[in-house]
Write a structure and sequence with these properties.
Elements: H1 3-26, H2 29-49, H3 56-65, E1 77-81, H4 84-94, H5 101-112, E2 118-121, H6 133-144, E3 149-155, E4 175-176, E5 189-190, H7 195-200, E6 203-205, E7 218-220, E8 222-225, E9 228-231, H8 233-241, E10 250-252, E11 263-266, H9 267-274, E12 290-294, E13 303-304, E14 312-313, H10 314-327, H11 337-356, H12 361-385, H13 393-417, H14 421-427, E15 431-442, H15 450-461, E16 469-472, E17 487-495, H16 499-521, E18 530-541, H17 546-568
Parallel strand pairs: 1-11, 1-12, 2-3, 2-12, 3-6
Antiparallel strand pairs: 3-5, 4-9, 7-10, 8-9, 13-14, 15-17, 15-18, 16-17
Helix pairs in contact: 1-13, 2-11, 2-13, 5-6, 8-10, 11-12, 11-13, 12-13, 15-16
Length: 569
Amino acid sequence: MNLNIYFTNRLRLAYSKSSALLAKFWQKKFYLYLAALFTLFAVLDTMQLHIISGMRQQAFDAMVRYRIIVPKPDSDIVIVDINEASLAAMAKDYGRWPWPRQVLGEFLEQVEKQQPKAIVFDILFSDADIYNPDSDAYFDSAVAATNNTYFPLLRLDPSSDPLSLVKPAMIPGVVPLFNDAQLEATIAVVLPQFPAALKGGRLGLHNIYPDADGIVRQYSVYRDDYGWKLPSLPTRVARDLGWTEPAAQRVLLNWRGPPFSYQYVSFHDVFTDMGSKEKKRPQDEFKNKIVIIGSTAPSLFDIKPTPMSKMHPGVEILATAIDNFKHNDYLRFPEAREIYLLITLCIIWATAWGFYNNVGRSKIDLLFGASQFILIGISYASINFADTYINITGSVTLGLIYFAIARVYSAATGKILEQSMVRVSSERQGELHATLLLIRLDVAQNILTDAMMEKIRYGLENTGTEQKSVEVLRGYQKGLWDLFEKTFSISWIVDQEDANGAARVIEDVAAVIAAFPQLVSKCIIAPDIAVSWFVHQGKISGGKEARDCWRVMFAEALLRWNEQQKKAL
């Protein structure tokens, strides 16, 4: 015994039995029950679970990475990069990182001569250089002589707050958000240890908080700790330069491109040129610029994963935030959950209506596919042509899952649940009066597609008032079956003694024949198309003999149709 054939047959038999059981138990109401279940989940997710809303992250990554219109990085933002080349070159004279602070002090003094708008350090000066206090003093005096230098502070884990001696009111630039701010609360932060930096008060958080999946997509505008507003470093810069501060606590970054999209200069190259008698660099290259001093060196571990890259320099994330705040073009993502819920329910119930009313597979596929394409297009367009990310990912995803389940159920039970007079007569007993209408389209060229045939079939099925079944032989047929290609078979049954029912069927037949040319004209205009039809009536037996009776009746109809055509000639 061939085991492969055996198990294949067993699986097919199990599939057939389970399909018949599902069809008998659920019938077409399955689509409505499933839609109700998805509705319940959608409502719960909107109100409490928020599972689908989290899908914004992956969708956002793809859309922002492959968008067509990408905003350009601000040319007035320059990153002075302490890269690996600078670390290696400077090591000869100043040793390994961290260098003596006098190096940064001299650099600061020279850059200040060019009158930049702001100098932002993406370097945490947390500890004093106990082996070189004069160097620290030099840097502190250089900072004291400026009014446009900005320094980061690091927010530690809030679990360490009780161990801290720093109160929010002690930090320059930190203000109460509400009247009930906790005055005696302490927060765990790492402040710059230079008095000039603290006295200047130009401090801000440079913590970067990734999403739950570890990807950095947002940037903090401020932190709310015990009712106190701790501004981020970009917010502190925005405040002094007169930019509009974002109202939200966190914003979705509007990325300017992959890493190294901004203007970079090497710290070593600039520092060396500053100390040279023969200047090779422009002496005004930093005039009116926002100069950010940071590092892209992997050895200094300031690399983060973002939607644009798995290795995005932290200093460029800071630059992106400053750029967004300056132009007020960070991405808004309206939390219109009620609207998203309504869109979701419309997709689910429209799809359920299509399956329940059997509007046709091609029409369902077309309408559903078009709706998904439009929704994704709206979301993609919003991120390309506006500063708003319309998150329709949840609606699209739930609709797609519903469609997939409904399609599987339809494929499994479609043949059993189809409106077939053969099946109906098999389920009834006694003598039945059957009517069979055959309509054939004769076209010179094969210009009628399966979609057109299905559209005509669906139109015939919804013509008239009596229950009937409409079948058509689809696809390209060869040999003997080619004789039946483009032939529609419409059938009715009533009880043998139901004279009124038989009369209504005759009226229905006339309505179908009258509607057929109009249905064809909606699909195709062909002068050489010919339509012929034949009506045959007879008696069939219900129950087990019904299928054989229909075969005989179909054969009789073909024979008499053929005889009629011969007489017409």
